[in-house]
Structure formats: C-alpha cells, structure tokens
Amino acid sequence: MRRRLAGRAALETADGPAELAALLDGADALLAWDFNSDAVRTAWPRDPARAPRWVHAASAGVDRLMFPELVGTPGLRVTNSRGVFEQPIAEWVAGVVLAFAKDLPGSWERQRQRVWEHRETRRVHGSTALVVGAGPIGRAVGRTLRALGARVRLTGRRERADDPEFGRIHGSSGVDGEFGELLGGADWVVAAAPLTDATRGLFDAAAFARMRPGAAFVNVGRGPLVVEDDLLAALRSGTGRPARAALDVFCREPLPAASPLWEAPGLLVSPHMSGDAVGWEEELAQVFLAEFERWTADRPARNAVDLHLGYVPMTPQP
Questions:
Q1: All domains of the chain, ordered by start, with CATH?
Q2: pLDDT digit string (tens) for 211-252?
Q3: Residues with catalytic function
Q4: Is 233 in contact with 263 (CB distance < 8 Å)?
Q5: pTM here?
Q6: Alpha-carbon Rg of the chain, whole angstroms?
C-alpha cells in the first residue's frame, strides 16, 4: 500500500491516542485500522476546520466512529470496508450451523472420553433461519444458508415487500409483534445487524424467551446487540431457548478470562475472527486504495457511510 501511495500522500502511523491527536490535527485523511479502539474519539480535533476530510474504517462496522464530534464535522466523508468480510462470515455461520446440527462438539467430547455412542442428528435442509440484518453480511449469510436448503427470512431497519433477492424483508422492532413470531419460528437465529441505537440490546431476555425450544443463536454483528447476562441466564435455564449459541463478537474484547461466558453451557466462544480469512489484510488494503482513487479524483465513494444511519445503505453504488 505504501508503494501505491508513494509520491501521492505523506503517510504517518500513530500508536495510541496522544500520538494520533498530534498527527490528526490538520491531516487530510485517516485510515482507522483498529476497529476496537476508541482512539479516534479521544483524538478527534476540537476545531472542525482542522479535522480530516475523509475517514476510512478498515472494518465493516463503524459504530466506534459515530460519536457526535465526528458525525457533526461539515463535509466529512466516511467509508468502510464493505466487500471483504461478507462471504467469510457467511461461511463461518454455515460452519456453526452444520456443527450444531450434526453435533460435532458432542462427537469431539465423546472421542476425548473414548465413548462410542450412536446419536441421531438434525437436518439443515428444510429448517428455518432468521437472519437479523439485511445488509451485505446478512444477505451473504442468507444466501449461504439457502444453499444448504434452509428457509431464510431476513429482517431489516424497515419492512419492504419488493426485495429482488429475498422477496420480503421483515421489520425487527418489538418482540411482541411480528419479530417475536419470527423468533418463535426459527431453528437458527443469526444476528448480523450493525450496532445502532435501535439495535443495541435487541437480543435480551424477552427475545430469548420467544425463541423456539431447541433453537440456536449466532452473533456475528456487534457484541452489544446482545444483553450477555440475559443470554447466559437463558443458556443456564435449560429451557432450550436457545439450546446452543455461538458468539464471535462481545461487549468487551478480548473477552476477560474471568467472564462466565467461557463456561456457559452450549456456547461457542470465537475471538472475533469469523471474517478474517487468509488474505484479508491485503483485501482491506485494496478497498482502501480504491476509495483513495475515488477521493482524490473527487468521485463519489463506493462504500459511503450514512452518518445518520451509522452504516452503508443498501443502494446501488456508482
């Protein structure tokens, strides 16, 4: 990447908020590589005139950038790395669904104990999957689960009946309405929504109580979509709502060693790696360089974040 930008941009690397604050003041653009850091919030210039004109996130989620000072910067362009993580995440979700359906964790445990125990397993074909989030990641998950023969229903920020790929996109507000009915009819519930004020804590005790007994829950969106204490209580309750769960994202990362989630019954803990297939760093660089070309040519961004919504809308890109 440095070779591609040689002679076209002066590159500086910041290590920590203090160094970033010094470099950010008066900079033209910022590549935010560490999606888990709040350094940008801490270092953002107080004078909007000294703030960068473009911020690119080396991630799909941009929730850590959606603080008032940045969002309120006049004329600011914010882009993300849409296109890198969708299919790897979808494959990871499919792997989890297959592992749960075929009880691979149970087979590994019995092998460890040298126990030969015949069991019946579940079919994925003909089961029902509810994917919460109708953006690129949710759609990739939906397509992949469809390929396994699952019936897929998607929910989004707003309901619509004319989606060219999935037909109807359901709403996802309130477990007392249609969303609760969808939860109750799903064998697999996959959270793939961006983190916004509307989705924070969406999966709480009420949502888990509406799930079908024996259902599995998977979160590949953002940690705070889930009230983790409520999920822990649901898994410990023995009601099977849900019976198993897989979390690739957490409210606090890395997950503290003392967290009870490590030993929650039926829970698979994954260290925020579902989208990181071999070669992902080079792909991130390519997305950034493509956006750099558009920015320097004064062309519209391909992955332009709507600062009011907090994500890239699903609209045709130039």
A1: 2-83+277-296 (3.40.50.720), 86-269 (3.40.50.720)
A2: 999 999 999 999 999 999 999 999 999 999 999 999 999 999
A3: 222, 253, 272
A4: no
A5: 0.95
A6: 21
